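pls design
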């Protein structure tokens, strides 16, 4: 996949300390590492990534020691793959979701392999709070979305993380925090049914295209409702574009008629949409996004949740 390398790096840096980016050349030398990841792994530009793995490309079972090295060697790109890395600051193994890409950049030396990392230690621990069957289903949905649309894949991962953070801020139980994370991961699954010419359009949608895009909430709910015991999650997905004042879609629900997790999703979804790069517009700053969300408290969003969300973002 030919990606905009500078845009990818900018996105990861904007998302701060729990994220990392590595870029290596064909001889596995590091061409770029952001500051947070450099300190975590004790890696610098010019180092050979193989040294981090003791000079070993594959283990005794023939498995690559690094997803990034495998991408460079084989061209295979990974999406939302869970991977463990030992970090310098505490000597412990920490867990990340990893996306890898092949990129061509003549300024940086031709063929490059790029990896982005999102730390998920706390979220991985939450997996034990849900049935393993459910976890694998949710992760499969996220990967399926990513096969069609890189933005949506990145978006649902960010929303899932924001959902878990908001749940903690709202003093929800560990089980509820886990559910918040996985609902965030699956909330846009209905976009699988949206035509690619609309899903990947490079400029703003027309009125008709927007009406088609709105169908993704119902499509997602219909997909999830086919699974046993998933009716609650289906309703959360169906109503995540409802507005607190009753002017949202698809049912015009108002206030606490809207499911609790759907009200959370509305905030986290909007925040990530505003602060993410899109090909047809630049992102707004964190401060601008918070101001807009606060402005919409009581109309678009649950005001109590807005207060908790903005407090979390301000002091993160």
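designed seq:
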């Amino acid at each position: 996949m030919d990606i905009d390398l500078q845009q990818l790096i900018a996105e990861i840096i904007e998302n701060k300390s729990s994220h990392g980016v590595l870029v290596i050349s064909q001889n596995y030398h590091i061409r770029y590492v952001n500051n947070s990841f450099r300190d975590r792994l004790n890696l610098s530009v010019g180092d050979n990534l193989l040294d981090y793995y003791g000079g070993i490309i594959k283990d005794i079972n023939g498995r690559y020691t690094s997803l990034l090295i495998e991408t460079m060697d084989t061209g295979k790109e990974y999406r939302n793959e869970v991977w463990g890395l030992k970090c310098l600051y505490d000597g412990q193994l920490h867990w990340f979701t990893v996306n890898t890409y092949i990129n061509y950049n003549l300024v940086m030396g031709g063929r490059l392999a790029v990896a982005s990392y999102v730390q998920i230690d706390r979220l991985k621990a939450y997996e034990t709070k849900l049935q393993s069957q459910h976890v694998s289903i949710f992760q499969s949905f996220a990967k399926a979305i990513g096969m069609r649309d890189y933005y949506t894949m990145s978006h649902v991962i960010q929303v899932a993380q924001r959902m878990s953070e908001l749940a903690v801020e709202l003093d929800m139980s560990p089980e509820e925090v886990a559910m918040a994370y996985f609902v965030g991961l699956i909330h846009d699954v209905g976009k699988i049914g949206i035509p690619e010419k609309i899903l990947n359009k490079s400029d703003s949608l027309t009125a008709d295209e927007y009406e088609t895009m709105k169908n993704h909430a119902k499509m997602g709910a219909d997909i999830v409702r086919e699974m046993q015991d998933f009716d609650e999650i289906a309703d959360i997905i169906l109503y995540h574009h409802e507005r607190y004042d009753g002017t949202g879609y698809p049912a015009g629900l108002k206030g606490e008629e809207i499911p609790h997790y759907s009200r959370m999703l509305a905030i986290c979804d909007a925040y990530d949409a505003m602060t993410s790069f899109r090909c047809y517009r630049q992102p707004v700053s964190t401060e601008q996004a918070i101001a807009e969300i606060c402005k919409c408290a009581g109309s678009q969003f649950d005001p109590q949740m807005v207060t908790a969300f903005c407090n979390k973002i301000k002091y993160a």
